[in-house]
Amino acid sequence: MARLKVAVLISGRGSNLQALIDAAAAPNYPAEISLVLSNNPEAQGLARAAAAGIPHRAIAHPSREAFAEAADAALREAGIGFVALAGYMRLLDSAFVAAWRDRLVNIHPSLLPAFPGLHAQRQALEAGVRFAGCTVHFVRDAVDTGPIIAQAVVPVLAGDDEAALADRILMAEHRIYPLSVRLYAEGRLAIAGGRVAIAGAVAPGGLLLNPTNSEAAASVGPLASGGG
Ligand code: GRF
């Protein structure tokens, strides 16, 4: 069967792009990374595309509309069927979002709908949550909204700074992005009522605790009264 032609839009490092390239190197992966577009000519991800022999282009970003028009033309010329945003740091033109609706996904480093926007990991640390994670979702007009395909959860550990938490989340991103593209390419996703149903999905059972047991909780002693 023909593999789904996927384009990846980037602005920088491209580690998620790399995860997709690596996944697509497996002969049984149902998608190929056929095009990489960047709004930033210096993006490290462009070098990753070059190293993998994937057509790649930096498109100037004089305006959101101009970028969208040029990107749309490049995607159509390459016969792209699906677009993955991977660290693409600009807002997309709403006509572009509409044209690629339900064939356009994004990855975000939080458990959406918590902590949309910039510095999601810092937001999680500041909120004091015990678990953080990442989300792959179909793109809608409002930033970091849209039907959710997959999420992964990582613990927040005592002593985490933004970089440590971001690294832990990134490892999870590199697993759920290739998984999500695979599920789409296999035709297993259906969107209805703003939610994604996944044919044949296996969900984890059980309970996640952080801290993991009562001894850990007891070891910090009783909470001081009057605390906020
Ligand atoms: C990732 O954390 C992604 O979730 C966010 O931007 C970062 C991009 O990293 N949207 P990379 O360029 O894929 O390494």
Brief rundown of the structure:
The chain is of the alpha/beta class. The chain has helices at residues 15-24, 44-51, 64-77, 94-99, 120-127, 162-185, 214-219, and strands at 4-10, 31-38, 56-58, 82-85, 104-108, 131-138, 148-155, 189-192, 195-198. The protein has a seven-stranded mixed sheet.
Mean pLDDT: 95
In quaternary terms, these chains amount to single chain
CATH architecture of the largest domain: 3-Layer(aba) Sandwich
SS-derived structural category: alpha/beta
In DSSP terms (H or I, runs of 4 or more residues), the helix count works out at: 7
Shape: globular
Q: Per DSSP, what share of the residues sits in E-state strands of 2 or more residues?
A: 15-25%
The ordered string of helix (H) and strand (E) elements is EHEHEHEHEHEEHEEH
What features would you describe in this structure?
The chain is of the alpha/beta class and about 230 residues long. The chain has 2 domains: about 100 residues, Formyl transferase, N-terminal domain (Rossmann fold, 3-Layer(aba) Sandwich), CATH 3.40.50; about 120 residues, Formyl transferase, N-terminal domain (Rossmann fold), CATH 3.40.50. The chain contains 7 helices and 9 strands. The strands form 2 sheets. The protein has a 7-stranded mixed β-sheet. A two-stranded antiparallel sheet has the order 8-9. Strand 1, helix 1 and strand 2 form a beta-alpha-beta unit. Helix 1 runs parallel beside helix 6. It is globular. The protein starts with a strand and ends in a 9-residue tail after the last helix. The model has no long low-confidence stretch (mean pLDDT about 95).
